[in-house]
Amino acid sequence: MNRKPVKTSNALAGVKYEIRGELSRRANDLERHGYEVISLNIGNPGLFGYRTPETMRLAMIENLGQAEPYSHQKGIFPAREAIVMQQQDRGVMDVTVNEVFIGNGVSELIDLSLRALLNPGDEVLVPSPDYPLWSAAVALNGGKVVHYPCPAEMNFEPDLSALESLISEKTRSIVLINPNNPTGAVYSRQCLQNLIEIAERHNLVIHADEIYDQMTYDDAEFIPLATMVQNTVCLTYSGLSKVYRACGYRVGWCIFSGELERAQALLNSMELLAALRLCSNVPAQWSVQTALGGFQSIVNLVEPGGRLYQSRQAVIDCVARSEFLSVVPPMGAMYAFIKLGESVSSVIDDQEFALRLLEEEHILVAPGTSFNTRYSDHFRITTLPDPDVLHDIFSRIEEMLAQRL
Predict the structure, then answer these.
(1) Alpha-carbon distance 180 to 213, whole Å?
(2) Any idea what DSSP says for residue 253?
(3) Do the domains at 10-50+300-404 and 67-293 have one common CATH topology?
(4) Is 229 helix (H, G, I), strand (E, B) or coil?
(5) Nearest Cα to 380, choosing from 70, 57, 84, 156?
(6) What's the pLDDT tens digit per position in 294-345?
(7) Counts for the chain of helices (H) and strands (E), in that order
(8) Which residues make Cβ contacts (< 8 Å) with residue 311, sequence separation at least 6?
(9) Rounded CA gap, 390 and 385, in Å?
(10) How confident is the model over 368-386, as a mean pLDDT?
């Protein structure tokens, strides 16, 4: 009997996640054949020897006895209360535990909040380059992604004139990623204020992805968007995975602020969706209060002499010496969005470059088009490896390109 293949959902037609796509699968094949692959495609601190603060691990262990039942669908009270206190310390005074949702990472909360908001055909403004989960989540929940440009010549800040020109009757919300993944941009106060004014003028919900909120360098200043939003609804997303190097804990949070009366139906809808999945990972939630209330070890890592700072500087220095590469120095997060020079990009695009780098040097990077760009001459790396490893990586890239061109 000739049986037909199982059909998959049409919703997946608008979904891509090349960060863990074909190149990543090829890297896994190489590793199974005994090759050592340096994986620079994902910002995964634990893979490079960064440890979650010990106090957070102890907090989980000490509360394991309370972690066996389901928790409230929004999360345990001590964790949500700690998040509220952090917001109050930052100047966001209108938030209570009722406006805080804890999820299995920010990824789950992005999906839940967009599912609660969108009807088929609704449009969401998403930056380009973006973190592709945002575009995928919009598509999976029946929405239409409209990418607004964040050009390199503007240090990857949003082109707000272009953004506003893209707004239509179907536009529901704007996504902002600050500090930015993949570019490392940290947005100025004026940029944020202008974006908020656009959102307020057009009655748009703002999604503020701030998972790298304390990860900035030199004189870059991170400004929590919720401290500036008054006349529209703002959803702020953050969590433990990056600043606290606890990716595997899968703990993120979403905070509603701004015009909360207007957000009540959205709050109720998101709570319904949260209840359907019962609750998020309870043991790891017990580390939140300790994480937010204790010593912030990220500060030492991002200041001059700190490991994250020195690795970022190594990338900047290596690219500055390169014959073939350039980069807008990342001012936040843990990535660099590197441009291939014309002598390279006129011969091969970002996908071919990444494939050759993997096959010949066993170095895995993410092509720039993975982040929904219209251009194909960039690639993203994580800046997590030690400086000496990064120097070796760029030396190998330089040698490969010199031999090829």
Answers:
(1) 10
(2) E
(3) no
(4) coil
(5) 156
(6) 889 999 999 999 999 999 999 999 999 999 999 999 999 999 999 999 999 9
(7) 15, 13
(8) 383, 384, 385, 386, 387, 390
(9) 6
(10) 96
Q: What tokens were used for 186?
A: 């940290």
199-257 pLDDT, tens digit each: 999 999 999 999 999 999 999 999 999 999 999 999 999 999 999 999 999 999 999 99
Q: How far apart are CA 158 and CA 128, in angstroms?
A: 9
CA distance 125 to 138: 10
Query: 129: cis peptide before it, omega within 30°?
Result: yes
CB-based burial, 242-277: b 16+ in 10 Å, e otherwise: bbbbbbebbbbbbbbbbbbeebeebbeebbebbeee
The pair of structure tokens assigned to 296 is 């912030």
CB 373 within 8 A of CB 346: no
pTM of the full structure: 0.94
Which CATH number applies to 10-50+300-404?
3.90.1150.10
DSSP-based three-state secondary structure for 123: strand
pLDDT digits (tens, 9 = 90+) for 156-212: 999 999 999 999 999 999 999 999 999 999 999 999 999 999 999 999 999 999 999
Tell me the residue type at 317.
D
d(CA 176, CA 188): 13
Please state, in angstroms and rounded to a whole number, the distance separating the CA atoms of residues 333 and 181.
7
**Strand locations in 280-372, DSSP E?**
325-327, 335-340, 363-364, 366-367
Token pair 């960039």 in the structure block, residue: 378
Distances (CA, A) of 374 to 129, 148, 352, 364: 9, 11, 16, 22
Which residues contact residue 234 at a Cβ distance below 8 angstroms, ignoring those fewer than 6 apart?
A: 205, 206, 208, 225, 226, 256, 257, 258
Q: Check: CB of residue 136 under 8 Å from CB of residue 16.
A: yes
CATH code for the part of the protein at 67-293: 3.40.640.10
Which of 158, 161, 172, 72 lies closest to 119, judged by CA? 172
Domain extent listing, the chain: 10-50+300-404, 67-293
Give the span between the Cα atoms of 147 and 128, in whole angstroms. Answer: 6
